[in-house]
From TrEMBL:
Residues 280-474 form the HpaB/PvcC/4-BUDH C-terminal domain. It comes from Xenorhabdus ehlersii. It comes from the Bacteria. The keyword Flavoprotein applies. Residues 4-269 form the HpaB/PvcC/4-BUDH N-terminal domain. Keywords: FAD, Flavoprotein, Oxidoreductase. GO terms for molecular function: oxidoreductase activity, acting on the CH-CH group of donors. FAD binds at Q150, G151, D152, R153, T188. This is 4-hydroxyphenylacetate 3-monooxygenase. Pfam families: HpaB, HpaB_N.
Amino acid sequence: MIRTGERYLDDLRDGRTIFINGEKIANHVDHPAFKNAIRSVANLYDYKVEHADSMTFKTEAGEQIGLYWQLPSTPEKLIARGHAAYEWAKQTVGWFGRSPDYVASALTGMITHIELFESYSQERADALRNYFSYVSEKDLYLTYALINPQGDRSKTPGEHTKNIYHTLGVVEKNAKGIIVRGAKMLATGAALADEVLVGTHYPLKQGVDERYALSFAMPLNTKGIKIISRKSYELGANPKDYPLSSRFDENDSMIYFDDVLVPWERVFVFEDIEMCLSQLDSTATEVMMDTQSLARYAVKLHFLAGLAQAMAETNGVEQIPAVKESLAQLACYAMNVEGLFNSVLHCPKVYNGFYVPDKTLLYTYRVISQSIYPNVLETIRKLAGGGILMLPSSEADFEDSEILGIIEKTQYSSIASPVERVRLMKLVWDAVGSEFASRHLQYELFYAGAPYQTLGRLYTQYDWEASRALVEKIRML
Ligand SMILES: Cc1cc2nc3c(=O)[nH]c(=O)nc-3n(C[C@H](O)[C@H](O)[C@H](O)COP(=O)(O)OP(=O)(O)OC[C@H]3O[C@@H](n4cnc5c(N)ncnc54)[C@H](O)[C@@H]3O)c2cc1C
């Protein structure tokens, strides 16, 4: 049965342990800190159902599931999943990084390279393959938690001698599975997802850190999993004042594993440092999920370009040559990323009979996305001036006839009513200046790794030999 929004909501009422603002929340699905974002995910599932032809496929078992679970065994399948990701991103105008297609794509990229797991351990490979079948057939929504809490970054997790379980690690193993304790830094969407996929993507020291070299997946309502949410931006946010925060705050949470039993059939890597890194670096995991990100980012940049133009028109400045240049710069960023997205879909690498996105292009995307986002925000802020602050404090001001009278006299635009002007400027503020916007800046800067990491990886991936050959050609003249 195809997973609808309603079914997703029902499944999510799972009694997970989630804390926010000093409270353990009994029913997070209807809690004002999370409920709108959860409804946004439900809307995505409904959109998928309504556009089943382009968003889903039928499995051999007869289930109609999201295209993000389909292995890219032909070039057309890669293109179709890319287009589906783009369509989904349009439903949240690019503000939902961790929609259900993100980690599903990561997992798909592990399955295209299943032989890596087989050469590591047949049992772990079987666990991964079975898990993939289970979550894909049910079309579950996964988040992931890879990064260890910072603590002291000059030390590896095992060198945190004051508390070696500051970072998630194995406490013991037994016939049933492993017992794990400790934290992962952040899992975006932990309040919204069904399950968490855990991995490790940080340098670990042989002989010291094996207990942290793990990968497994568990339902988020598992006994002992404690979700510690950051501040909610949708809590108390009126959709008219905060059109984005109120709908698309996808949540980030630290996940603490309080002696959680992970059965062996859910363990994919166990105490193997090299395999932990290979799981992400030597498979199509990163490139598959980055392709989803690239689609989302392209949509977000188009949205921001359109928003800037609407604001410039409302302020009557869009015909000024310098303003047109700024707007063209935003269009250029969006088209640049759109072009990269199309290259990724149309220039795959063939691996094992699968058409997987090209690593160099995706590593380039990571660097580009981090470097242009601050410029995009700055460009829009410069175009905005004080108009994004000369605004009524909240929707309540419209209820007071005296304030409303002043709003109507002062929120002037040649092309928009005072109310339309206020609404637009509030949208701009929510996109570039609110706490939600600030979190998005941090997200774009870090979710794919710190900038020093993404640049470092592009450095190792780029074809220097080919570029050096060009230099040699001239030097030999
Ligand atoms: C909004 C948001 C959502 C996120 N969601 C998720 C998620 O869902 N799942 C997940 O697994 N992770 C998530 N993350 C975590 C993200 O992957 C990490 O932030 C990222 O990998 C960088 O790691 P870090 O934060 O530990 O930074 P660090 O590695 O501690 O680096 C921070 C800064 O310290 C400096 N620095 C540190 N080490 C070096 C070095 N060796 N060389 C040079 N400079 C250095 C750099 O200035 C660097 O930018 C999220 C992060 C954010 C901000």
